Amino acid sequence: MTENSFIHRFEPAHDAGSPPLLLLHGTGGDENDLLGLGKMISPGSALLSPRGRVLEHGMPRFFRRLAEGVFDEEDVRRRARELGDFVAEARQRYGLAAPVAVGFSNGANIAAALLLLQPDVLAGAILLRAMVPLSDPPKAELGGKPILLLSGQADPIVPASNSARLAAQLSEAGASVTHKILPAGHQLSQADVALARDWIGNVAAEAA
Questions:
Q1: Are 103 and 177 spatial neighbours (Cβ–Cβ below 8 Å)?
Q2: From 105, 151, 163, 192, active-site residue
Q3: Which pLDDT belongs to residue 103?
Q4: Cα–Cα distance, 208 to 204 (Å, whole number)
Q5: 42, 155, 163, 192: which is the annotated catalytic residue?
Q6: Is 163 a catalytic residue?
Q7: What is the pTM of this model?
Q8: Which of 8, 85, 186, 189 is catalytic?
Q9: 48 burial class (0-12, 13-18, 19+ CB within 10 angstroms)?
Q10: Each residue's pLDDT tens digit, 40-77
C-alpha cells in the first residue's frame, strides 16, 4: 500500500455472506483492539483494522482534538479523507465489498465523519459511544444506509443531547438509524455485543 497508508491488520472472510467490517479503535487503542469484538459480532466477516495515525500523549487516535469533546474539525475532515483513501486501496488489494464500520469512541467519531463526508465509502456503521464529529457537516445523501448507534446512559464523555443530535444528523441525511441508549457508561457492555450481533445479522440477511 502507499505511503498514505495505515498500519493495519487484515483477516480474510470465512463466510462470503457476511459483510466486511472496518474496525476503528478508541483513543489509545491499536489495530489489534477490536479484532475480538469483530469476531464476536460477525464471525464470518473479513476484518480490516487500521491504527489511527494521530498521537495524543503517545496514544493513537484517528484525529486531533483541542480538548475533551472539542474536535479539531479541519483535522477531522483531512483524516476522514485519508481513511477513505485507505479503505478504497484496501478494497482493491483484498477484494472487498464496501465495509460496515464498527467504531468505538474516537473510532466511532471518525466513522460518523466518513459517513457525512464520503457516503460511498461505507455500507453502514455500528457507532459505539459516538459524538457529533462536525458542527456544520456538508449535505450528505446516505440513501437508507443502515446505522446502529449505541449510547451509554451514564456516559461521562458523551452527553445524551450530543448523541441524539448525531442520530438526527444521520437520519436527516437519509440513513436508516437505530439509536439505543443502554444502562452503561463509556465502556462497552455485553448488551452492546448482543445488539451489534443481532443488527449485523439482520443487515446481512437483508443484503442476501
A1: no
A2: 105
A3: 98
A4: 6
A5: 155
A6: no
A7: 0.97
A8: 186
A9: buried
A10: 999 999 999 999 999 999 999 999 999 888 999 999 99
Domains in the chain, CATH or no CATH each? 8-202 (3.40.50.1820)
Task: State the cell numbers at 197.
Answer: 450481533
* DSSP H or E run through 190: helix 190-207
In the structure grid, which three cell numbers stand for residue 10, read together?
Answer: 487484515
155 among known catalytic residues:
yes
Q: Does residue 9 contact residue 49 with C-beta atoms inside 8 Å?
A: yes
Q: 165 vs 12, 68, 160, 171, 199, CA distance in Å? A: 35, 18, 9, 10, 22
The residue type of 184 is A
Q: CB count, 10 Å around CB of 183?
A: 9
Catalytic site residue 105?
A: yes
Confidence grade of residue 4 (pLDDT, cut at 50, 70, 90)? low
Residue 69 gets the label, from left (phi > 0), alpha (psi -120 to 50) or beta, of left
